[in-house]
Structures are given as C-alpha cells and as structure tokens.
Amino acid sequence: MKVIAKNIQTDTSPATTRHRIIVRQYPDTAGWSEWMPWECPVTCGGGLGSRTRICYDPDLCRGPQEQTGECNPEPCPTSLEPQQQAVVTEIQNYLLATHQAFQLRTGDPVILPCKGSLTDYVNYYAPHAKVSWLRNGEALQPDNKRVTLMENQDLEIKQSSSKDNGIFLCILNLNPDTPITTSLSAVTVQNTKPDLVITVGNSLSLSCHGALLTKVYPNAVIRRWFHNSTFYKEFNDPNVDEISIDVSEYTHSGLWMCVVAESPGTYMREWPTNVVVVQVVPPSEVFKKLIEVKKKLMPLLMPLLPFVAAGVVVFFVFCCCCCVCCRRRRKKRRRNRFMDDDW
Questions:
Q1: What count of other Cβ atoms lies within 10 Å of the Cβ of residue 78?
Q2: Mean pLDDT, contiguous 10-residue spans, the chain (343 residues)
C-alpha cells in the first residue's frame, strides 16, 4: 500500500499558522491500467513471454510496468515434416500394391522383406528410422540362431516351423508417434507331424490369423477354409477368425488351411495364413473300458432310478428333521441353564 500526501491546507488564523495534511491510501494497482495480453514467441510448447500495463497517474503507480513469465505451456500437436509425410505416402502406396505370401514346409529357410524395392528411398529420406517386427500382433525378438535380423532389416528364418504360421509385419518408426507398416508377409508352414491331436468326439477350434491382414488391407474380409485341399467353409465376416467343430470325427483328420481373400471388385488377392495338420484318434483303452461299463450298467440302473430319487428325497427330509431336533434341544438346554442361574 502506498501513502500519498495529496492535499495540504493552511490555517492562516491570526494566532498561529497551522498546516493540515490530508493523507489518503491507494492500492498498489492504483494509477495502472489492466495488464495487456501476453506476447509470446511460440504458440505451444512453452516460452518466455511478457506483458505490459499503462500508467495513468505517476504519483499513484507502484510496481513494474512490464512482467515476464511462461506463456503458452500447452504441448504442441505432433505433426510430420513435409518430407516425412511424403515418405509415409510413398510407403502406403507401395504396401497396398504388394502381395507377399510364402507357403513352406517344416525346415525350409525364408527371408521376409522389410522395405523391398523402397530400401534405397527409405534409407535416404529416413536414415535414422528404427525397425521392429511383429508376428501375429506380438513383438518378435530375433534369437540370432533360428531367426535373424539382417543388416537391411529383412527377417531371415533359417528353419521354419509350424509356430511361424500367420502374419509378419515390418514396422518403420519415423518418430516415436509415427509407426508405419512397410511390409506384410503371410507365412504358412506345413508340418510333417500332426500339429493337433484330439480324441474323437471332442471339440475342434482353429484360428485363421487374419485380423492383422484385414487392418492393413481393409478389403481382405473373406475367410475360406480348406480340408485336404477341398473347400470346406467360407466366412464373409472379418470378425469371424476361427472355425469351430463341436463334435470331431475321424474324417476331420488331415490338412486344414485358411485363406484370406479380398472382396469381389478389388484386386482379388489371396493370402494363405494358417496350416494345421489335425489327427483325430480313438479314445484310450481305459476310456473305452469305462464306456463299455457304462453301457452295461445303464440298462440295470435305469429301473432303479425312481428308487434312488426317492431315497435321496427321504435322506434330505431326514437331515432336515435332525437339524430341527438339534435346534430344539439347544434351546431347551439354554432355558434350563437360565432357570438354574435364577435359582
């Protein structure tokens, strides 16, 4: 608070001369205008800005005329540089025009391309971009033995196995917020031994591994299943990525393959995405004996079922009666104890 002597009045009476001072108190903002808007050198991300105010009365103005501080602290939206955007567009056009599908047998080697014919282009305009690989949506870590990441970021599988069935994606990270798929490879590996052994009569469920493929190629919505090279069933819904059989039979043994295809009117491309060798086996000897015993006992037990049911009901009623009697006895004992205590 500032104290200002604004008025001095003089008393000129004959006896004495007196001066009366009228003291007034003014707030610190007195004499100043409102602060002007901040002037900031940046529009986002935070910067050192300043603002000013105007003094209308120098006798009242107190404090600085200019104030500095942080301005526009909001984070800036992520955006690609024009050159990076051109790289993204080029990769997207290249990816939509490519078709990579590898049908292998167990032990076959294969090299899955990452940048393909765009290798020189990407290395020139995005030399520091990092590369990662996904297999069926999960991060793939090369072990440098069976699976190796080559210098040009291609993925080398020296000995393929049935666990390599599915979709491989090469992801190029231009910056932490801009991952882009540069290649998609569909891989199927036919095993020489059964991949799945089930007992006849049990349920059977097989995955197509087509979800990632549909995300990259939106028109790839058809799932076709083949059994021993014969068409078995087709789904036109991309959300149906499995085939299920409630009760398996011996005829379900053999080679099952899922093929993802584009809808009519487009490129009509197809990608085999999974191959499974299924073997349906008879039940074990113990299980067979149990079934035989069950078959023999069922005719004998069927006439006894009404009596068994009646026995269960009688046993239940008997248990209820016992519970009621026990409760009554407990209450009677408690009453006797209270009466003994009163005496």
A1: 9
A2: 46 52 57 83 79 85 86 68 80 90 96 93 86 94 92 95 96 83 96 94 95 92 96 94 95 97 86 97 71 67 74 82 81 67 53
Task: Look up residue 265 and give its two tokens.
Answer: 């009117």
Instruction: Give me the residues paired with residue 95 across strands.
Output: none
Q: Return the H-helix or E-strand segment holding 6.
A: strand 2-11
Q: How far apart (Å, rounded) are the C-alpha atoms in residues 136 and 336?
A: 76
Closest CA to 204 of 250, 273, 261: 250
Strand 196-199 and strand 270-281: the pairing is parallel
Name the phi and psi angles at 152, rounded to 5. -90, 15
User: Looking at residue 138, what is its pLDDT?
Assistant: 93
User: Which residues, at least 6 apart from 102, have a Cβ–Cβ distance to it below 8 Å?
Assistant: 110, 112, 185, 186, 187, 188
DSSP line for 153-196: S-EEESS--GGG-EEEEEEEEEETTEEEEEEEEEEEEE-SS-SE
Secondary structure element (H or E) that encloses residue 67, with its range: strand 66-71
- What was the pLDDT predicted at 225? 97
Query: Rounded to an integer, what distance in angstroms lies between the CA atom of residue 189 and that of residue 187?
Result: 7
Cβ-contact 58, 31 below 8 angstroms: yes
Strand duo 242-245 + 18-26: pairing: unpaired
81-107 core/surface letters (b: 16 or more CB in 10 A; e: else): eeebeebbeebeebbeebeebbebeee
